[in-house]
Amino acid sequence: xxxxxxxxxxxxxxxxxxxxxxxxxxxxxxxxxxxxxxxxxxxxxxxxxxxxxxxxxxxxxxxxxxxxxxxxxxxxxxxxxxxxxxxxxxxxxxxxxxxxxxxxxxxxxxxxxxxxxxxxxxxxxxxxxxxxxxxxxxxxxxxxxxxxxxxxxxxxxxxxxxxxxxxxxxxxxxxxxxxxxxxxxxxxxxxxxxxxxxxxxxxxxxxxxxxxxxxxxxxxxxxxxxxxxxxxx
Length: 233
Description:
The structure is a single chain. By secondary structure, the protein is mainly α. It folds into two domains: 6-157, Orthogonal Bundle (Ribonuclease iii, N-terminal Endonuclease Domain, Chain A), CATH 1.10.1520.10; 160-232, 2-Layer Sandwich (Double Stranded RNA Binding Domain). Helix content is 60%, strand content 10%. The chain contains eleven helices and three strands, in the order H-H-H-H-H-H-H-H-H-H-E-E-E-H. The chain has helices at residues 3-13, 20-26, 30-36, 45-66, 72-82, 85-95, 105-109, 116-133, 136-152, 163-174, 214-232, and strands at 180-187, 194-201, 204-211. Strand 2 and strand 3 form a beta hairpin. Residues 162-231 form the DRBM domain. It comes from Streptobacillus felis.
């Protein structure tokens, strides 16, 4: 990445890194590290881990202060819609992060720059990097600005609806049991897996989902199950 690219990206997120190596690490996918096999290159997985926790705290604090009359259950449902791979991926697209990520040739050719799982992860890694480079108040301010428009338009973002909770409510009411999600198939290398998940109720399969993450595959399966159960009513 050229210096010009660093400046351009930092302008988009409205933050200037003191330690540019953190930004570089946040943008480095594990496939790139595996391809180049250099001890001097770090992938973004540790920063992603940190960023996930930072995002959880920022989001929880934000919706808690903005929804003073909401119950714990309502707040949990709201948070589950925001803390999602798809919402994070849409923010990455707004920032054009896909064009900045360091990927292996294979991952690049296979469309990794547009894949929700990759884009969601790199956003979390970027948040983790900003947190380490600055402090919590600074990170919170940046994140809230990026999240604000998403929070106001959650219903317009594909797959953010909490299909799993909705399905559980339906099955408990109709069958007095909770749905069971089973990973029936995994394809691809560790850094680029595809998961096939089935959701069953009383040993009968009602839905199937295929996606780049287990969570997304489960949501797709739950949505399909809800549609099937509604037709049977």
